[in-house]
Amino acid sequence: MIKRKTPADIAGLRQAGKILARVVDEVAAAVKPGITTKDLDRIAVERIAQAGAKPSFLGYHRGSGKPFPTALCASVNDVVVHAAASDQVVLVEGQIVGLDLGLALEVNGKWLYVDMAKTVAVGKVSRTARRLMTATQEALEEGIAQVGPGKRISDISLAVQRRIEAAGYSVVRELVGHGVGYAVHESPQVPNYLDDGFPDLVMQPGLVIAIEPMANAGHWRVQVKSDGWTIVTSDGSISAHFEHTVAVTETGHEVLTRI
Fold it and tell me: Which terminus of the chain, N or C, has fewer Cβ atoms within 10 Å?
């Protein structure tokens, strides 16, 4: 069921999105060789609390599995998404790390959810890593450009897929974007590639979606590690991930997770 947001909800999501954008930027600025991903998580938790919000991934349940143990997903190199932050993961020069963070803000007695991700370099990285991050970030922007009333979800999918594949990289198939706002995950699904198996929704004002391209330097196939959360590339190639929460407006769109 598609849950379109009211203008008041959009205003609250805008407030939440600006908080999240500032927190993600601060976490990204702290990335350097020698820091642990748990250190980054601590920064995120502290800043979210200071803003009067709560982390939406911490304790998140998916089915009957274990709750997610941290606020921040910190995915290094061949990890695509959903790696819990850890004191055992020390960042090293030349790596890339995907920072995926969500928060909920209570506005007028209602909890509103936003989601954002970016991949950043740990010091100096390879040309391939730089090109992969650039292509994935540009794919996100090109996907966002397709958001508007009367447009279709497939317009986003095609734009993202074309940009990533034109750069010589692959689009992850098993993971997609999603609706967001009243919960961490809502309908509709927003794939990053064309697939007739997904409902091709016509966008209308009030729809809020998380667009999140995930691109691999090698093959698109991924696999889940034994912890039930961490998803890695099947061939060990590096992966990049960028995400924004976007609202469909009467005349186009608004990126809510920007300062």
Answer: N
